[in-house]
Amino acid sequence: MATSIKDTLKESTKDLLSEDTLDQIEAVFNEAVEAKAQLQVGAALVKQDDDHAKKVQQLLEAIDDDHAKKLDKIVEAINY
């Protein structure tokens, strides 16, 4: 079983393509795969960043709400 695109093409074309052509095809294929992987990683990082930003915002709002309630209790205690 072929383990690389070059080996697969070599088996499929029955040596119709030269080694140089196979090397070029393999290089272009590997570059395309790497570019696609980088795009997917970048998209995943952007999504993760957005998710974390939303969670931090929710956490800050909850902390602010808690602090506001505690301050209201302090104000009520002082006024009575």
Give the SSE map.
Elements: H1 5-13, H2 19-79
List keywords for this structure.
rod-shaped; single chain
Explain how this protein is built.
By secondary structure, this protein is an all-alpha fold. The protein has one domain (16-79). The protein is built from two helices and no strands. The protein has helices at residues 5-13, 19-79. α1 (5-13) packs antiparallel against α2 (19-79). The model has no long low-confidence stretch (mean pLDDT 93).
Which blocks of ≥5 consecutive residues have pLDDT under 50?
none
Quaternary organisation: single chain
Strand percent estimate: under 5%
Using the alpha-carbon principal axes, give the shape. Answer: rod-shaped
Indicate how many domains the architecture comprises: 1
Structural class: mainly alpha
Number of helices: 2
Radius of gyration: 30 Å
Short recap of the structure:
By secondary structure, the chain is mostly helical.
